[in-house]
Amino acid sequence: MSQRSKFRTSNIAVRRGRVAVVTAGLGVSLVAGAGAAFAATGDTGAQAPAPVHTATVAATVHHQADTQAKAAAHAEQVKVAKAKAVKAAAAKKAASWIDPVSHYKLTAGFDDSGSHWIHKHSGQDFAVPIGTDVHAAHTGTVVKAGPHGAGDGDAYGNAIVIKHSDGKYSQYAHLSRIEVHVGENVKTGEEIAKSGNTGNTTGPHLHFEIRNTPNYGSAINPVTFLHEMGVKV
What we know:
Blueprint: H1 3-41, H2 54-95, E1 105-106, E2 124-127, E3 133-135, E4 140-146, E5 158-164, E6 169-178, E7 185-186, E8 191-195, E9 206-211, E10 219-220, H3 222-228
Antiparallel strand pairs: 1-2, 2-9, 3-8, 4-5, 4-7, 5-6, 6-8, 6-9, 9-10
């Protein structure tokens, strides 16, 4: 090979080497550029959290406050409704009739006859121990209260008569203690006396009458009357 051919061959080899280096360098640059772009975008395959907006937080707080306010208003409505129900129940009780005593045994009944009475028995006897609470059978006003049957005779002992709005009167006799006075207004179930054994009796009991007037001689069957008022005697 001539000297000139060797030189030409050497130049071609150098040029090829340069092209390879440049090409490799370009590849490195491309790879590095891609890596830099990858790092710049931060794309690791996971999405970044969405930004929290102040308006969204405010709306959530407002909704919670509104819910709590509605719950409080509902609770107040329930409370008011319960109070009204209690008041209505109390009013209904005040308008009703009840037994004048509790835990009793019925003994002599209305219209019974015998040696104990000059005339037939004018009421219903409730056998109870002395000192048992006696309650107003119905709302009304006390028109009689005192010894000697409150004016109806010694046989009744200490007695009370109450006038009711329906025109009827209730009488309570043989009491050991009177706890009300004439002119006093009483409600259904209110304690008015203690049972006893005063007057003409054969043992402790409450003598109870329903009358058409405040005076002796106008009585009707008290058990029948109470049954009509829904009271089980």
